[in-house]
Specification:
Blueprint (H helix, E strand, L loop, with lengths): L5 H10 L5 H4 L23 H4 L22 H12 L14 H18 L8 H13 L1 H24 L5 E16 L3 E4 L15 E2 L2 E2 L1 E4 L5 E12 L6 E9 L36 E10 L4 E10 L32 E10 L4 E10 L25 E12 L2 E12 L6 E2 L10 E2 L10 E15 L2 E14 L9 E15 L7 E14 L4 E3 L8 E10 L4 E11 L10 E11 L1
Antiparallel strand pairs: 1-6, 1-23, 2-5, 3-4, 6-7, 7-8, 8-9, 9-10, 10-11, 11-12, 12-13, 13-16, 14-15, 15-20, 16-17, 17-18, 18-19, 19-21, 21-22, 22-23
């Protein structure tokens, strides 16, 4: 006997429904099945309505006479049909307690194949026609009930077809609601401009007697905020993908009240606790990502677009994905790597073998949360364009000797534009953050920079994993004043952590991350903000992703920041965050 695919059988037999005169009048609008053409009358002695539309299952149908025994003659009759049409699965045992519902299911398949297999010029034998007619009469109630089920399914499918968003596009959404508070026992020293009372973390400080100006900060209050993505994934060939992602938010996380200039949205700030647009607190909707990817062959894929998401392709780690793992700005990726979060350009992804993968990309800055009015989004500005600063060339080799271990080596070469005359801020990596000048308060030219990152995650057991990153960066300091020598700033970053998959529930994830986000090795004299008093900032993050349901997750997180702003005299800052995460 041949083993039939039951799903295929359902499609084939359901398509016969449209050819039945008795049913056609009731299903004029239900054209959702693959074929709705009338079926040739291949059994002339039996009406189309008698041949019927065999349906896959009668289990659980209300009113089905399941208590009525199957006549003894029916089993041999069905076997006779099976002998000719091979319509019963090999594993089926018709002698062991088969219900009328199950019997009708097998009969349905045989009727389907009979309808396909008997050529019109060669009618079936009289005995065969009588057998089919007799079986249909005996199980007419079951088959009629099954037809009703298919009609109901067709009607529902038609409604879905009419109401679907698009035949080529899938719309998904992620919404976060954050409850966040930051606490410290003493005032925090930060390097900021004295303008506006030292309240603006975006204005670089000035130098007074060679020392950057400082302010004392303390007051923060708990906040409630929202952040959301709307993502449209469109495919036109089944292998390509157009990604269009919109973003909105209204947050200013409490830790931002305590940071030095250029450190906004860095330490102690969950990625989901931000505005995500240039309009702070506005909930304005902006385009976050727009890219199109397509295959060159089975191993090579190309992604192009005006706004590619850097983190979709580079520096990924199973334990630091902000959706489920370590989720602060500093812990979710290398602090020295991404001068460009989103950019215009292209990325080529090459699956060399099952163990090796290589990604390479060129991106020019075009980031949704930076304002073109302030000189950002340079790739769409003809004064800078696609190949002017800020831009970045990235290459990453990934090695996965097993599904439990991933190793990545990344190199980046970037050219950084000095916004307001200084290197730093959101596009300053690998400085990172803060601001750099020529050492005397003077302005800088474009800065070439190199970054190296080693990244790994290793699942030691199904319940315990380790992860880490080491990053090294070098930024050239080229003063506008040619009388000043310039030089380089060199910095390293170290991260180590533990991950606990399925902690308390399948799909949950606990993470502990220890991080030194920026340890300066040289060129500290060029730091206009971020140098502190020579201290070394350290961060501890503990987070727990708990999927309450398929669409809802609860994520509590705790951050402890030691020597914040690189001032060893600063007291620790403690941040607590609980976010509700909705996906649909």
């Amino acid at each position: 006997m041949v083993k039939l695919n039951l799903v295929t059988s359902l499609i084939v037999t359901a398509s016969m429904l449209a050819g039945m005169g008795a049913i056609a009048a009731q299903s004029k609008a239900t054209d959702v099945l693959p074929s709705q053409e009338p079926i040739p009358k291949i059994l002339p002695s039996i009406a189309d309505s008698q041949i019927g539309a065999p349906i896959r299952s009668t289990e659980g149908i209300s009113g089905s006479p399941s208590t009525v025994p199957i006549p003894k003659w029916a089993l041999p009759a069905l076997r006779q049909l099976d002998d000719r049409y091979n319509c019963i699965e090999e594993s089926t045992d018709l002698d062991r307690g088969v219900t009328r519902a199950k019997f009708a299911e097998r009969l349905n398949i045989c009727l389907s194949l009979a309808n396909e297999s008997i050529p019109v010029p060669t009618p079936a034998t009289k005995a065969e026609l009588e057998t089919i007619q007799k079986l249909q009469a005996e199980f007419a109630t079951e088959l009629t009930a099954l037809r009703g089920r298919v009609e109901a399914i067709e009607a529902k499918t038609e409604i879905l077809k009419q109401q679907q968003f698009s035949a080529t596009t899938k719309l998904s959404a992620q919404v976060w609601v954050n409850f966040t508070g930051a606490f410290t026992s003493n005032s925090i020293t930060a390097e900021r401009s004295l303008a506006q009372g030292g309240t603006n973390a975006f204005i670089p400080p000035a130098r007074v007697n060679g020392v950057p100006t400082r302010v004392q900060l303390r007051d923060t209050n708990p906040t409630v905020s929202n952040y959301l993505f709307l993502t449209l994934n469109s495919s036109f060939t089944g292998k390509d993908m157009l990604v269009t992602q919109l973003v909105a938010g209204n947050a200013n996380s409490p830790a931002n009240q305590l940071v030095s200039s250029g450190f906004f949205n860095t330490w102690g700030v969950p990625i989901t606790d931000q505005t995500g647009t240039p309009q702070a607190g506005s909930n304005a909707v902006y385009l976050r990502e727009l890219s199109y990817s397509f295959p060159i062959n089975d191993r090579v894929r190309v992604s192009v677009g005006p706004r590619l998401n850097t983190y979709r392709y580079f520096d990924q780690n199973r334990f630091t994905n902000f959706l489920t793992g370590a989720g602060s700005f500093n812990s979710s990726g290398s602090t020295l790597f991404a001068a460009i979060d989103r950019g215009s350009g292209a990325v080529v992804s090459w699956n060399i073998s099952p163990q090796f993968r290589f990604n390479a990309g060129y991106l020019a800055e075009n980031t949704e949360f930076l304002s073109a009015a302030n000189g950002f989004n340079t790739s769409s500005n003809p004064a800078a364009g696609l190949f002017g600063s800020t831009n970045q060339v990235i290459g990453e080799l990934a090695y996965s000797p097993s599904k439990d271990l991933n190793l990545k080596l990344l190199y980046s070469r970037s050219l950084i534009r000095p916004y307001n005359g200084f290197i730093g801020g959101a596009v300053g990596e690998p400085l990172p953050y803060g601001y750099a000048d020529d050492g005397f308060g003077g302005r800088l030219n474009d800065a070439p920079a190199d970054t190296f990152v080693a990244n790994f995650d290793w699942l030691l057991t199904p319940q315990v994993g380790v992860f880490g990153r080491y990053s090294y960066g070098n930024t050239g300091i080229i003063p506008v004043n040619s009388a000043r020598a310039g030089g380089n700033t060199t910095v390293q970053s170290i991260q180590l952590g533990l991950g606990f998959p399925d902690l308390g529930k399948k799909g949950a994830l606990g993470t502990i991350s220890y991080l030194i986000p920026h340890s300066y090795l040289g060129g500290r004299e060029f730091l206009l903000s971020g140098g502190g008093d020579g201290g070394k900032q350290q961060e501890l993050e503990v987070a727990y992703y708990y999927p309450a349901s398929e669409n809802i997750a609860i994520v509590p997180a705790f951050y402890a920041i030691f020597n914040p702003n690189n001032f060893q005299t600063n007291s620790p800052v403690y941040i607590g965050n609980v976010r509700m995460q909705f996906s649909f």
